[in-house]
Amino acid sequence: MSPELAAAGIALVAVMMYAMFGGADFGGGIWSLLASGPRKEEQRLALEKAIGPVWETNHVWLILLVVTLFVVFPAAYAVIFEALYVPLFIALLGIVARGAAFAFRHYGDRESRLARQSLQWFSWASVLTPFTFGLVIGAVTTGHIEVEGTRVLSGAFAGWLRPFALVCGLIGLLVCAFLAAAYMVARTEGELREDFRKRAIAASLALGAATTAAIPVAAWDADAFASHLNDARVVGAMGVTALLGLAGLWALWTRRYRLAPPLAAATVAGVVGAWGLAQEPYLLANALTYEAAAAERITVVSFLVALPIGALILVPSLWLLYWTFSRDTLRGEEIAH
């Protein structure tokens, strides 16, 4: 394995981790917006309790992705951020607005006008941000962004308003909604747990339908990507992902609450992994491969040497944070009613 391929793998893992952890946070905002029924406020309160300790921390995976692109693949970083600055700016605005709104909502007077408005900002930003990130994923896949060297020729609106990018935006939303609801079934009890179980089942079915529909849409709108879908590795990854999705649906249907969160996370990791395999060797479809976009070999190797050193500090810290705020759940104790 070349150093460049290893670094591209790290970028893919960063996308996976951000989807599995940050995606659940965005999903919490989606379900806050869609909260309904006699336990509407209880649903929102349970989501806030689950998100509160970790929502800022989960952006570390986005930072890892950006740093990897900036340091190891500067040509891809420059092109992607120039070609897709509109959806990326919207996503960044959504992250900032969502964080500020959550803080006002979480620490302010819940009955105040500010708290009610903050809930709306938090919820809508939680919808907008993963959708625009999905547009970006779709845009780098479609092959409609034209590049000459590191100069973008196709303008600021190429790629991300295409049908396949829009489907990817929808998939981004459904991934977040599915993860949040599946994670919450292990963090709630009684009728509230049943609310989240039903939402997780609905989101799982919708995600399965959307990812299946993405295949013919890719054949129509993203030729380079679609041509890799018959690769044995990609077919295998999609098959394993489908099995994981069915297993997660079974766990939810049969009320195996402890199994639902890890199976949901594994399903989402499979979706991202299959996409990454189908995208290889491109970072930007039909324009930049990871070999062509890479920095000097010494820079790539130095990054690969430095990353495990930083991980020795970061990974145990993250594990301690997640364990600290999940230990009641792991012990089978009730967190939210």
What does this structure look like?
The chain is mainly alpha-helical. The protein has one domain (3-330). The protein is 76% helix and 3% strand. It has 13 helices and four strands. The chain has helices at 3-33, 40-51, 60-72, 74-83, 85-107, 113-142, 163-184, 190-221, 223-226, 232-253, 260-279, 290-293, 297-330; strands at residues 147-148, 151-152, 282-284, 288-289. The strands form two sheets. The protein has a two-stranded antiparallel ribbon with strand order 1-2. Strands 3-4 form a two-stranded antiparallel sheet. Helix 3 crosses helix 4, helix 8 (190-221) packs antiparallel against helix 10 (232-253) and helix 10 packs antiparallel against helix 11. Residues 330-337 have low confidence and may be disordered. The chain crosses the membrane at residues 6-34, 60-80, 86-107, 119-140, 160-186, 198-220, 232-252, 259-278, 298-322. It is found in: Cell membrane. This is Cytochrome d ubiquinol oxidase subunit II.
Short descriptors:
disordered C terminus, single chain, two-stranded antiparallel ribbon, mainly alpha, 337 residues, two-stranded antiparallel sheet
